[in-house]
Amino acid sequence: MATRDECLVTAIVVLRDSDDRVARYVEEVHAVLGRTYADFEVLIVTDISFHPQGRLLSLLSRLECVRMVRLSRRVSDDVALTAGLELSIGDYVVVLTPLRTPSQVIPDLVRRARAGTHIVLGVPVGEKVVDGWLYRFCQSTFRRMSLYMFGTDLPGLNADTMVFSRKAVHALTHIKQKRRHLAVLLPEMGFPWEVAPYEPMTEGAGVIRRPLLRSIRSGLSVMIEGSTLPLRLVGVTGLVGSLLSIAYAGYVLVINLIRHDVVEGWTTLSLQISGLLFLVFVMLTLLGEYMVRILAEASDRPLYHIADERTSSVMVRNADRL
After folding, report:
1. 92 pLDDT band (50/70/90 cuts)?
2. DSSP calls for 16-49
3. How far is 138 from 134, CA to CA, in rounded Å?
4. Which of 15, 207, 168 is nearest to 98 (CA)?
5. Secondary structure of the chain: what % helix, strand, coil (to 5)?
6. Are 126 and 200 in contact (CB under 8 A)?
């Protein structure tokens, strides 16, 4: 039997539904980890909407070093991932996308992380990944805007598989931002990162299509929450509008001084007032969005609560190693 690596690796799988395919996938991940590493754990993270059953639930009695954590309310994937990172114990933590990330790529991604890159981002590529021209255009536009707004590229935009060293996990879990976007948080930590393309797995002859509308909503949220530049742009716009209003008022005064046939009417005044109100309401809208986020951050509510936790009957492969 080949010698297994002496590092402890945690594989996190965030599940939203349960069927035999998911159970088979977890078994494949478990087998790869068992062949490659002397110590490992498989951490399954779900929420209250998920009801483990059948073959998936039987994994806890058949496989060693498997944990299943179910959160007490519905949460986003990023929050579920944060829970998994905080509960993981591995020297290196691998985040997998069920039924998409091939279990065979785990050793290579961990090897890259152990070589000195604290964060490895697995990006699916190949013929099975189909993105429309509109998605590619929006993504290219967003990447250019992010370079200007954040001063760096956002490496996690298309990554659905990630490997973190223990130092990177500590740094990431210490960020207590309530609305979490890993694409923004990863560059802020300052750790070196590497992109690792891989061929994804799909069911049958299916292909992977990234959702355009959800990506646009996520991108807008990232820009609002990750940078103060939009707020400053609104402030500059308000200042320019105010200066233009003053200049127009001066123009009206000059016209009234040099011309005697000016008919006083409501058109000019209405246009001026409506323009100013438009700018004011735009600023109030964006300020309200920021106030909502500030309130969420200041409330200091926990990101998640654990409803229950189930473990394998054997949690350590070798009791002497403990």
Report:
1. very high
2. S---HHHHHHHHHHHHHHHHHEEEEEEEEEE-TT
3. 6
4. 15
5. 50, 15, 30
6. yes
Quote the tokens at residue 226. Answer: 């990750």
SS3 state at 68? strand
Beta-ladder partners of 15:
none
- The two structure tokens encoding residue 321: 């190693």
Radius of gyration of the chain (CA): 26
Model pTM?
0.74
- 168 exposure class (CB count in 10 Å sphere: 0-12, 13-18, 19+): buried
Segment 277-299, tens digit of pLDDT: 777 777 777 776 777 677 666 65
Determine contact, residues 217/180, Cβ cutoff 8 Å: no
Q: Kindly state the tokens that stand for 286.
A: 């964006």
Is residue 122 within 8 A of residue 45, CB to CB? The reply is no
Evaluate whether 174 touches 85 at the Cβ level (below 8 Å).
no
Residue with token string 């996990």: 169
